[in-house]
């Protein structure tokens, strides 16, 4: 009530109905929240390359070169305006952008090795919402890459989960043939058709049944 204006900016499929209840809103599923916000506040300026990279990762278009190396940089810098302003300027310059990407490639090589070790050591085949799918316990930062890798290995979906703050945090990824946002909504979560998530309080049992532990 103390604000002169409230606008809702969103791109999640599961949030469409509630977003459109707002008096003023911006809603587009084919763009990330970062690009939608930039276009709303700076409609006369081109979207910076760094924000385009963030969108490329966020909605999993993966069209820009070295997108996973850039993800390494984005995920490791401090979350403050000074740092991100400098980073955005670095990406607008060919020389400094290339230096950042080379740093990201080094980190990416280690991350890929780490993810392979995690998946090989504890992935399980589970029954969830009528599907036999891979489930793996891993930090949320690996959810997208690990989930999509497991989904390709055993379609049509995959589960990446972790315990956090007394809750089971579940990330779902699909190959597009299953709308995981609808599954997530059943458990109080949401997201997109191919990427969604939800949380379950610790007192509840796992919402899936283990069929077997995948052993190599």
Automatic annotation (TrEMBL):
Domain DHHA1: 152-201
Listed InterPro entries: DHH_sf (IPR038763), DHHA1_dom (IPR003156)
Organism superkingdom: Bacteria
Molecular-function annotations in GO: nucleic acid binding
Gene3D superfamilies: 3.10.310.30
Protein's recorded name: DHHA1 domain-containing protein
